[in-house]
Amino acid sequence: MSAPTMRAVELEAFGGAERPVPVRLARPEPAPDEVLVRVRACGVCGHDLLARRGRLGGSTPRVLGHEIAGEVAAVGADAGARRGSEPLRVGDRVVLGQRVTAGGGSRFRGERAPGGYAEFVAALPADVVRLPDALSFVDGALLPCGIGTGLHALRRLGGGVGETLLVVGAGGGVGIHAVALAHAAGLRVIAVTRAEGKRAALLAAGADSVVAAAADPLAEIRRLAPEGVPLAIDCAGPPTLELTLQALARGGRAALVGNVADAPLDGAALVGRAIVRELTLLGSPHATIDELALAARLVERGTVRPQVAATFPLEQAEQAHRMLEESAPADRVVLVVDPANASAGRPTQLLFVQCRCSVGRRGTGESGPRRRRRPTM
Q1: How would you list the strands of the sheet with 248-256, edge to edge?
Q2: What is the chain's alpha carbon radius of gyration, rounded to the nearest angstrom?
Q3: What does the pLDDT look like over 209-233, one tens digit per residue?
Q4: What is the CA angle 256-261-266, rounded to 5?
């Protein structure tokens, strides 16, 4: 009898959007301490584009995808215990952390561990979080990276109600959810994006002010925060790092969560500014497993709502990558492995539709005074 196979999209070689191709691969067999997860949805983000181009190293062929939601299809003989909580069972709805923590190490999914552009993946119970019934699998696919990354950065930064947070590169999937989370925590949020067309979406997400497509974004930020901002999240990296550091107040703190493109940097000037201004720069990668569970609860409570631009069938990964590269939506693109089941749970908000409807109703850069909320995180 031949071994069971599965549908997958494999990165056959580094290069353009045409490189991820539909294939059939051997279905993974879970080890005794693992569970087998049937993937229902997998998010696609800028990290995938970098990996596809070979910017993150590693080798090919490989299966990309680190934002995985699905359901338990099989449980290994020794996988019953799960971090002291109720054991996982076949049929449980779950979300996977971005890293595989086997053997005390850590391997990123889609790079040095198999990713979610496939029907099945194996996972350790310690790397799995339950997905609330109220959330769809598409919602779940946004939790590990789109929502969890900003949540981790905010928890690293701290900050109190009414403090100002600058989100640079706010027009992407991580940025727009960071805006929403910060607003829910009671922060005053200034969002920076290169695209004027994303202004309405960012205001709707909770930004108090939006600096969009400005000829001199630093001057506009200083108009909004004359003494500089105490907190910042930079979602882009080299192209925006200088702006982020220049916008910080003395003693300010910045969380660096993105590294989307190369750009020339004046290292001496950046280091000098950090020293003289006594700035704190925090590397901030992704949500911990506990933060992933918190992200699920926040979405379940309605504190933050997953923003999805579009969904594509698994075999259309090429089209999903092209959409990210060519239109750079202010939200996430998601691959659905089983379209009939991916939307089970609460209906997912498609932000493209919302953006078209809201343009013109909140077209200014500022939304006016808001009553500050108590932190919810």
Answers
A1: 209-212, 188-193, 164-168, 229-234, 248-256, 280-283
A2: 20
A3: 999 988 999 999 999 999 999 999 9
A4: 70
Q: Beta partners for 130?
A: 94
Is cis: bond before 217, omega within 30 of 0? Answer: no
The CA-based angle 233-145-168, given to 5 degrees, is 20
Q: Are 324 and 333 in contact (CB under 8 A)?
A: yes
Nearest-angstrom CA–CA distance, 313 and 36: 21
Instruction: Dump pLDDT digits (tens) for 12-68.
Output: 999 999 999 999 999 999 999 999 999 999 999 989 999 999 988 899 999 999 999
d(CA 41, CA 23): 17
Q: Which whole-number Å values give the CA distances from 197 to 161, 189, 204, 227, in the listed order?
A: 29, 18, 13, 28
Contact indicator for 48, 140 with CB cutoff of 8 Å? no
The sign of the CA dihedral 155, 158, 159, 164 is negative
Percent of the chain with pLDDT over 70: 86
3-class SS at 62? strand
Distance of CA 111 to the CA centre of its chain: 16
Q: In angstroms, rounded to a whole number, what is the distance separating the alpha carbons of residues 346 and 330?
A: 21
pLDDT of residue 161: 93
Quote the distance between the C-alpha of residue 301 and its chain's center: 19
Contacts of 18 (CB under 8 A, 6+ apart): 318
Amino acid at 276: V
Q: What is the largest CA-CA distance in the chain?
A: 71
Structural domains in the chain, CATH included, are 5-144+287-357 (3.90.180.10), 151-285 (3.90.180.10)
pLDDT tens-place string over residues 160-185 = 899 999 999 999 999 999 999 999 99
pLDDT value at residue 28: 96
φ/ψ (deg, to 5) at 323: -60, -45
DSSP class of 161: T
